[in-house]
Structure formats: C-alpha cells, structure tokens
Design goal:
- The protein has 14 helices and eleven strands.
- With about 350 residues, the chain is α/β, with parallel strands linked by helices.
- It has a seven-stranded mixed beta sheet, sandwiched between helices.
- The structure holds nicotinamide-adenine-dinucleotide and zinc ion.
- Nicotinamide-adenine-dinucleotide binds next to helix 4, helix 5 and helix 6.
Length: about 350
C-alpha cells in the first residue's frame, strides 16, 4: 500500500492506494473519532462489498443507507434520505459518514457530511476508477438540480480516501474506460511522462492488471492533489482539471445524461480541445494523433455524435452569448503535458474544430 497526502494545512488528509484495503480496519480507525459510523452506498455496490466493509468496522456502532443507483438519483430528494436515516438512527455530531461507491455516492455523501449538524467527518471509499482518480479527491461535493448538474454543493474535504484497487475487478469494462479518460487527462494537462507511460501500458490497464492500475491511480491522485493544494476553491489553476469538459458537457446535454458516460464525453471533448490547440499552432498534428490513438486504445470515443452540428455546439456551449461578452473560457493545450486556460478564442478556428470532430 502507498500513501499520498493532499496538502491543505489543517484540512490535509491521506489517500491510501493498494489492494485488499477493505479489510484494513487499521486504516479507518484513526479517522473515526466517535463511536458512530454511517455507511452510505447504493443498491449495486451494497450486495458486493457492504458486508465486507461492515465486518471491518465491528468496533463501531454502524448504520447503513442504501441509495438507488444512478446519476438520476443524485438530487436533493435522495440526499434527504441520508439525513432522515441519520436522524432516525440518532447520529450525533461525532458521527463519521463513509461513502462506499462511485462518484455519485461520494459526491452525495460528502455533501451530506458537510450539512448534517453543520458538518461531520467523512471518509471516501471510491469503488470506480473515475472516483478513485478524480471525484474522491479535492473536496467538491454536491447534487444536481433539474436546472443544472452539480449546482447545489459545497467544498468539503474528507478525513481520508481509501482507494482499494481490488474493488475494480467487478467494475464493468465500459466504466473502466470512462475512468481512463480522466487518467489520460492528467497526462495531457500536466504530466507528459505519464502520458508516455500510458501509451506503453494502456492494454494492461484495460485488462485490469492490478499493479498497472495501482500505479495509474497513484500518479493521477498525485497530479490532482498537487493542483488542488495550489487552488482548493478553483480561483485559478484548478480550472485546468476541466480539460475537455466544456465540449464534453455539450455532448452530455445533447445526448441526454446516461447515454454517453461522463468519461466518454470528456474523451471526445479532449480531442476537440486538442484539435483547437493544433489549429492555434500550439501542438502538432502528430501530437493530436497520439492523443486520439491512446483514447481509442482505451476504447473511448474520439468523435462527437454525427448528428451534432456546429450550431448545436455553439448553442450548448453558450458560445454566441459568451463570445459576445468575451467570456468563453476554454482549457487548451500549450504542449502535450501542459494546459492553459484562455478566453482568447478565435471563433473561426472553433467552428473548424466543431466541423472536424464529428
Ligand atoms: N467531486 C468531483 O470532483 C467530481 C469529479 C468528477 C466526477 N464527479 C461526479 O462523479 C459522478 C460519476 O462518478 P462515477 O463515474 O464513479 O459513476 P457512478 O457513481 O454512477 O458509478 C458508475 C456505475 O458503477 C457502479 N459501480 C460502482 N462501483 C462498482 C464496482 N466496484 N463494481 C461494480 N459496479 C460498480 C455504480 O453503481 C454505477 O452503476 C458524477 O455524478 C460526477 O458529477 C465528481
Ligand atoms: Zn470529469
């Protein structure tokens, strides 16, 4: 097992990465300060891992909330189920919530912890690759509102993140690929050497090799923790973590949430960002092709849906409004391994990118 630290002064916390960590009660105990624990999980993960986790927590008074599965349930109604259960089970201010699940469970549990009795402790046990490398680290928590994704939330850091690579064995292949999109993102925005490592090892990752996955999770968390430590509340540099996301959100919205997984939309979005960067003269055609090849080897889509027109991208990205105000900001590549955030965007080149990437 290896340990990283997210360095945020008094809010600093460890990320443990390794195999078979679910049984390691020595990892949880130091981060649970009272007697009470509430495990929040969902109906898919519970049958596979809940008993295992519960047996590692036998020194504590444990209650459980099992949520329905899916992004569609990431809302205030479901959040209230957590509060109701905490109150019914008489959890006090010293309780610790434990999120056992992917990003949906993690984001909701973190937000519940931020709000319950004005803030109680929580621990993240991410069970998807995406949540291990992205959502469990950095303290963004929240739920969706019918008018916008992740629009209700808080910055609230966990006490610890326990990334047990063994849990990925049961994750569907498509979800593994979606997680790899965010892994590849770190190579693109800040870690060219990691990008090269990914080019050499992508088949191992797809194949579920634990050593390769452990390394990829560690290196991704290191990258994310480094950015978060510099800019916890996204006043500046943290925005580079959104490479491909503005394009990707347009695809997610156009296709309806759930048809394209978030990581799939981000993969195509990163190709679009790279394509625009190439048109601006910042990366070469060769670099762009390397990015496309790697994403394809990870079984990720690299083209926007054929029925999405440039006009639709313009509308969904708010380009017309934003360009008029001069405020469309995009994360682009200055080089392979170096991102920039810029609002200096040539609309003509952007249109060429929309046309070229479908
Ligand atoms: N907080 C952040 O910084 C941040 C960053 C990125 C994404 N997110 C959020 O994360 C969410 C997406 O997370 P996700 O990709 O983990 O999706 P998810 O939580 O919906 O999990 C994907 C699917 O895999 C299932 N699953 C989870 N672990 C499993 C396992 N070990 N074996 C078998 N099945 C398993 C889940 O039940 C679900 O059906 C989105 O809501 C997104 O907004 C947050
Ligand atoms: Zn993302």
């Amino acid at each position: 097992m290896q340990t990283l630290t997210v360095a945020l002064g008094e809010r600093s916390y460890p990320i443990f990465v390794g195999s078979n960590l679910l049984s390691r009660n020595d990892l949880y105990s130091p981060h649970i300060h009272g007697k009470q624990v509430c495990i929040v999980t969902n109906e898919t993960v519970a049958p596979i891992y809940l008993d295992h986790l519960k047996s590692s927590l036998n020194l504590f008074q444990v209650s459980v909330v099992v949520l329905p599965d899916g992004e569609a349930h990431k809302n205030l109604t479901t959040l209230n189920e957590i509060f109701t259960s905490l109150l019914a089970e008489k959890h006090n201010r010293t309780t610790t919530l434990i999120a056992l699940g992917g990003g949906v469970v993690g984001d909701m549990t973190g937000f519940a912890a931020a709000c319950y009795q004005r803030g109680v402790n929580f621990i993240q046990i991410p069970t998807t690759l995406l949540s291990m490398v992205d959502s469990s680290v950095g303290g963004k928590t929240g739920v969706n509102h019918p008018m916008g994704k992740n629009m209700i939330g808080a910055f609230y850091q966990p006490q610890a993140v326990i990334a047990d690579i063994s849990l990925l064995k049961t994750l569907p292949a498509r979800e593994v690929s979606a997680g790899l999109a965010e892994v590849i993102k770190y190579g693109l925005i800040s870690d060219a050497d990691f990008f090269v490592w990914l080019e050499q090892n992508i088949e191992l990752l797809i194949g579920g090799d634990e050593a390769a996955l452990t390394y990829a999770v560690l290196r991704s968390c290191e990258n994310k923790a480094g950015v978060v430590a510099q800019d916890e509340h996204e006043g500046g540099i943290r925005a580079i973590l959104n490479l491909g996301h503005t394009f990707g959100h347009a695809i997610e919205t156009a296709q309806g949430y759930g048809n394209w997984l978030h990581g799939e939309a981000v993969a195509t979005g990163m190709v679009m960002a790279a394509d625009l960067s190439m048109r601006r003269g910042d990366i070469s055609k060769d670099d762009l092709q390397r990015i496309i090849n790697l994403l394809q080897r990870a079984n990720l889509p690299t083209k926007a849906p054929a029925d999405m027109t440039p006009e639709q991208f313009v509308e969904l990205m708010g380009v017309d409004k934003k360009v008029l105000d001069g405020r469309l900001r995009l994360v682009l590549l200055k080089a392979l391994g170096q991102a920039i955030v810029t609002s200096d965007i040539d609309t003509m080149l952007l249109m060429e990118t929309f046309a070229a990437c479908r």
